[in-house]
Design goal:
The complex is a heterodimer. Chain A is built from eight helices and 18 strands. Chain A is α+β, with helices and mostly antiparallel strands. Among the domains of chain A are: 145 residues, Probable tRNA modification gtpase trme, domain 1 (Gyrase A, domain 2), CATH 3.30.1360.120; 74 residues, Aminomethyltransferase beta-barrel domains (Elongation Factor Tu (Ef-tu), domain 3), CATH 2.40.30. Chain A has a six-stranded antiparallel barrel. In chain A, strands 3-9-12-11-10 form a five-stranded antiparallel sheet. A five-stranded antiparallel sheet of chain A has the order 5-6-7-4-8. In chain A, helix 5 crosses helix 7. The longest helix of chain A has 15 residues. Chain A is globular. The two termini of chain A are 35 Å apart. Chain B is α+β, with helices and mostly antiparallel strands. Chain B has four helices and nine strands. In chain B, a hairpin with a 4-residue loop joins strand 1 and strand 2. Classes of the chains: A alpha+beta, B alpha+beta. At the A-B interface, helix 2 and helix 8 of A face strand 6 of B.
Chain lengths: 361, 125
Amino acid sequence: MKRTVLYENHLALKAKMVDFAGWEMPVQYSGIKSETLAVRKSLGMFDVSHMGEIRVKGQGAGEFLDYVLSRRISNKNPQLTNYAFLCYEDGGVVDDLMVYQLGPENYWLVVNAANTDKDFAYLEKCLTTYKAQNDIQLINETDLFGLIAVQGKDSLEPVLNALAEVYPDQNIEQDLRELKRFRQVNYLFNDQLVVVSRTGYTGEDGYEVYLPIEKTKELWQSLIEQEVPPCGLGARDALRLEAGLPLYGHEISAEINPLEAGLGRFVEFDRDFIGKSMQGKQDRRSLALISEDRSIPRADYPVYYQNKKVGHVTSGSFSPTLNKGIAFALVSNDLPEDLSELEIEIRRKTHTYKVTKTPFI
Amino acid sequence: MAELKTDRYYVETHEWIMIDGDTATVGITDYAQEELGDIVYVEAEPEGEELVKGDIFGSIESVKVASDLYLPVDGEILEFNQELTDQPELINSDAYAAWIIKIKISNQNQIKELMDAEAYQASIE
């Protein structure tokens, strides 16, 4: 199994480790509830170094990404970190990812750990059929970088302190104080790339710091010394679901296109791109559901409307913030528009769930 | 390191059973609560239900997972620990004090098939 550079740190913190997409990762330290609430109330941090970084660079890289991704990238503000889908021809999703512009014709795709190899192979295939002549290079840089996400409203000061400790000769304070949501700053420190973006996967304000693998332990240690609570993948999943954010393989997949998942705002149809044929293909839709009783919905539980099975839960959990069961369900698109309630079958009994809006919190 | 008590028996599905004459209380082990993490919901079959050894008598849920509960011996459910309705986390704080159900044992012969603390300890190592 693969391990991030922080593996020993997790063991020292007595994390419970699990196999996640071939990586041995911390699922929790103190407990999923307390970690989730720490991020909601103040802050917490996550080792997400297992996520993939794929470099796409060379003359024409921007145009190539415009063609393979669900949104035009080349015309966006280069400081914006953009969320987009990599799709199959039929609109099914290969992966959802964040696009970082690192320079002219120089990009990073930050992808799900479970999909890094698949994405890389798919991009290579797209590139060979793209244009006979091109100078675009694809490089998998996952093993070169660590990634620490510090999330919650009190994230900025510890991140500033930690970066000042790791890079004492660099002055980045003003940049980070002025950095707006969903934007990034890129640095070359000693010829090594460091990227800080004001992004995350929790629904809270926060920062994600990409830095060379040999510096990652130092940054983590500094954050630990500042008493930033370490949080595992369990809290990360609870936080993202509470925030109404999709997870690949659940809300979106090769079989569930972005329109069905209610994520059409991240697809730009006014041009040609791989996956454009998803337009109009929307037999199902995604609904946010919240419990009326103490039940907890889980992925794959069947969903009923007027005693007829109409779909299934794609993600479900107990919400530590709301103390209720919450879920995304994928249901048939012929249900009434103004649906207010559905039933979820949990251990052979049906429970009423209210249709709600995201974010849940 | 998960704690064990020598005053009761165990089964490999991580329930404990403490016998008092022809009745018994049943809960989950400290090892099981550690594996589950924060417990947020517990339910059991209704009182009066007659079940056999290995039957699912209820379920327990943590933030992350739902897990079935298995009856260690044949018996009739006498009572569900109502405290767990509002405070399922009692199982996290003391898995051996927070019993889940009380049963009337209907087959005393099955007691000798249960594991003692030592045997259970060996099974989780």
